[in-house]
Amino acid sequence: MSKSGTIIIVDDNKGVLTAIQILLKSYFSKVVALSSPVTLTSVLREEMPEVVLLDMNFTSGINTGNEGLFWLHEIKKVRPDLPVVLFTAYADIELAIRGIKEGATDFIVKPWDNQKLVETLQTAATSTHNDRKTASKEKPAHSPMYWGESKVMQQLRVLIEKVAITDANLLITGENGTGKEMLAREIHALSNRKHKEMIAVDMGTITESLFESELFGHIKGSFTDAHTDRTGKFEAAEKSTLFLDEIGNLSYRTQVMLLRALQEKRYRPLGDTREYPFDIRLVAATNENLEKAIAEGRFREDLFHRLNEFTIRLPLLAECREDILPLADFFLEEANAELGKRTGGFD
Q1: How far is 255 from 279, CA to CA, in rounded Å?
Q2: Rounded to an integer, what distance in angstroms lies between the CA atom of residue 239 and that of residue 222?
Q3: Half-sphere exposure of 232 (CA within 13 A, CB side)
Q4: Is 233 left (phi over 0), alpha (psi -120 to 50) or beta?
Q5: Distances (CA, A) of 65 to 41, 102, 108, 168
Q6: Burial readout 268-288 (b: 16 or more C-beta within 10 A, e: otherwise)
Q7: Host H or E run for residue 267
Q8: Cβ(284)–Cβ(239) under 8 Å?
Q9: What share of the chain is helix, strand, coil (3-state, %, to 5)?
Q10: pLDDT at 92 over 60
Q11: Quick check: bond before 111 cis, omega within 30?
């Protein structure tokens, strides 16, 4: 049977406490029983529970009939998002509803129904699990940029630390394999938008027919296979950074679509009649000489200037000779560490 993490039960009636504790051991990995709420806030920090079952009345301490509401507020000071289920012996619906308005998740009336009690608590605990999973997805671990010791890379590092905190659109240029996306992620990690995930798009893999749907989204029924609404990259990157890799691969027609959105700071999902404003920081990258592409009529000059509020050129490895051996040692150490994890260590 799958168990739902840790629960804290707070009730001054030791008989009730014991009965609930025995019942919930089959449904929760850990059941912490408290006969008094005095130590509740410190226990919250130690146990990090998924849910609290909180009695509404206690025989000692504050004796106004609203003790449960007082301790509900104390819990929310420590863990604002923690589900709290209220437990009342008096079927005081008015007080329980007030508790829900003030942050409780649900309430149970004594005498209780075992199945209803278990279902209510497990539902509340599941919401905590889902919130934690969502948080971990929204804040992925960032691997810091390897800068090396060469003069050219240290100069680049100083420049990046200055421009990262601005909202200027950036164009990263450099040959394949020089680390353009890694640099974009470092810029995002140093920016004021770092609390949301950077959205990356490889423009070289998007066909012209899918461009609008991929970047701006579409609504159900906008074309034959549009069975549901789709969120585009512009919406996904709201308040964050949108990284467009290999921007030089855009066709002339899709360049016009992107330019229009950047000029007006609004986009329209495919099939929608409404336009939506956006707030993103745009970082584009290319291994192509865009100025040459402009001269040859393959890339729009006005789009180039929209993307290129600031240009960052990544140097070739040959320009950073003093970093080559240390960089090789760095990757060797990383490979050995990974191999050690997989094999349990080796001589």
Answers
A1: 20
A2: 27
A3: 26
A4: alpha
A5: 20, 16, 17, 57
A6: bbbbeeeeeebebbbbbbbbe
A7: strand 266-267
A8: no
A9: 45, 15, 35
A10: yes
A11: yes
* pLDDT tens, residue by residue, 191-222: 999 989 999 999 988 888 889 999 999 888 88
For residues 242 and 233, is the Cβ–Cβ distance under 8 A?
yes
Q: What is the DSSP string of 307-346?
A: H-SEEEEPPPGGGGHHHHHHHHHHHHHHHHHHHHHHHT--
CB 112 within 8 A of CB 88: no
Three-class secondary structure of residue 219 per DSSP: coil
Residue among 129, 138, 206, 180 nearest 283 (CA): 180
Please choose, from the candidates 278, 254, 274, the residue with its C-alpha nearest in 3D space to the C-alpha of residue 264.
278
Query: How many Å apart are CA 221 and CA 189, to the nearest integer?
Result: 38
- CA dihedral in degrees (187, 190, 194, 195; nearest 10)? 170
pLDDT in tens, 147-166: 777 788 888 888 898 899 88
Enter the tokens of residue 160.
Answer: 């990046």
Could you please report the per-residue DSSP string of 161-180?
HHHTTS---EEEE--TTS-H
Question: The tokens of 313 are what?
Answer: 């050129």
Which candidate, 300, 285, 320, places its Cα nearest to that of 173? 285
